[in-house]
Amino acid sequence: MPDVFTPAALGPITLRNRVIKAATFEGRTPEALVTDELIAFHREMAAGGVGMTTVAYCAVAPGGRTDRHQLWMRPEAVPGLRRLTDAVHAEGAAVSAQLGHAGPVANAASNRAPALAPGRMFNPLGMRFTRSPDVAQLAEVVSAHADAARLAEQAGFDAVEIHFGHNYLASAFLSPRLNHRTDRYGGSVENRARLSREIARAVREAVGGRLAITAKLNMLDGVPGGLALEDSLQVAAWLEQDGALDALELTAGSSLLNPMLLFHGDAPRKSFAATLPIPTRWGFRAIGGKFLREYPYREAYLLDRARQFRRELAMPLILLGGITNLETMRTAMSEGFDFVAMGRALLREPDLLHRIKSDPATRSACTHCNECMPTIYSTTRCVLRLEPPARLGGDTQQGE
Ligand SMILES: Cc1cc2nc3c(=O)[nH]c(=O)nc-3n(C[C@H](O)[C@H](O)[C@H](O)COP(=O)(O)O)c2cc1C
What does the pLDDT read at residue 386? Predict the structure, then answer.
């Protein structure tokens, strides 16, 4: 069984250990560009001992952002990103850019660009209908991922993580509930997987062999008629066969329809409602319990499902979800996972790994209250930390 704290290869790169900071949208890019606060956030994660930190998220097109304060990959963003990657490297960690298109999770009103979805549907986030891209527009989405990967390389990133989860665009195409297309991008599992596979191959052609390429894939959406585990296993097998990815990170849930499946633990209904504009807030009062449906927290809560992927795949896998202490990391290693990814526990204590190394019995102070979740609309942080980072002034994303 590999030791979680020894160096490990991830495609063409080597990480100093097997712990990756999972993507947690930072809310530190008010002008859609890197800020000193964003650099400080990732420097702190790197100084805390992770093998690699993940910048979240880097949209591949302006309309692929969840709102217009999010960074999107363009030449203008490269100098700031270069400062960020330099700062992370100076602390001895590697750095990955999470690349994706939010699709139906994009806020069209804020972006002032239509949200894309497999078909036309009402998007409550932007209070607009989505646009259904034709085949030529899908080809543009695919090449936007490749362009973004090239820019990530220019900016000094060691890796890119492609977002195939949470009902963002590629994941919405995987979902039979959201994808009713009758062209070659809809219908059979093979057709629904086409967009993800094309994106992975295009990114490989752009940066493969130089940057590590991972993808964050939904094992299941957790909504009636959504992507089921059986289909996702098939998609993962094709992704493995295509050989475009160096590792898969396994996730679950839908930012659109069932966000709490991503997290487990308490549903922060009140503070989430407070981030919504008034009419939506009233609507949320009526359906909030259903939307933020609670799942009891337990360590490694996605392991049972991830194990099935481990059984069927040979490629490196990253276990995610409720990993907060050395015992759970060791369980992941003993079950054959190559890396672990951690989100909330590191928001709570960025130096957790150092503490675990000096005392293996260390337990995380994260209470999975999930109050960090609504903070993405201002400045992402753990509300239990004694000294929360300074709030970025002025124009927050709230209520757009
Ligand atoms: C505040 C917050 C923001 C998040 N933002 C993203 C994101 O931008 N992209 C993504 O793929 N996942 C995002 N996630 C999900 C995490 O990457 C991870 O899947 C989830 O928190 C479960 O891991 P954990 O138990 O280690 O926290 C976010 C999670 C939190 C708590």
Answer: 77
Please give the pLDDT value at position 126: 81
Residue 23 Cα to ligand 1 middle (Å): 5
Q: Give me the torsion for CA of 71, 84, 57, 184, rounded to 10°.
A: 90
Q: Is 185 a known active-site residue?
A: no
φ, ψ dihedrals at 215, nearest 5° = -135, 145
Distance from CA of residue 284 to its chain's centroid? 24
Backbone angles phi, psi at 84, to 5 degrees: -65, -50
Is residue 395 pLDDT above 80, yes or no?
Answer: no
Q: Rounded CA gap, 184 and 190, in Å?
A: 9
Q: How many angstroms separate the CA atoms of 98 and 306, rounded?
A: 21
pLDDT tens for 371-383 read: 999 999 999 999 9
> What's the pLDDT tens digit per position in 70-82?
999 999 999 999 9
246 CA distance to ligand 1 centroid (A)? 21
Nearest-10 Cα torsion for 28, 29, 33, 34: 0
DSSP label at residue 390: P
Measured from CB, residues less than 6 Å from any atom of ligand 1 are 22-25, 56-57, 98, 163, 165, 216, 251, 262-263, 320-323, 342-345, 372-373, 376, 380
Question: Beta strands 212-218 and 159-164: pairing type?
Answer: parallel
Cβ pair 63, 114 in contact under 8 A: yes
Phi, psi dihedrals of residue 125, rounded to the nearest 5°: -65, -40
User: What residue ranges define each of the domains in the chain, with the CATH number in brackets?
Assistant: 8-377 (3.20.20.70)
Q: CA angle, corner 55, sides to 54 and 57, nearest 5?
A: 120
Q: What is the mean pLDDT of residues 134-141?
A: 98
Cβ pair 202, 242 in contact under 8 A: no
Which atom belonging to ligand 1 lies closest to the Cα atom of 372? Answer: 1
Percent of the chain at pLDDT > 70 equals 96
pLDDT at 260 over 80: yes
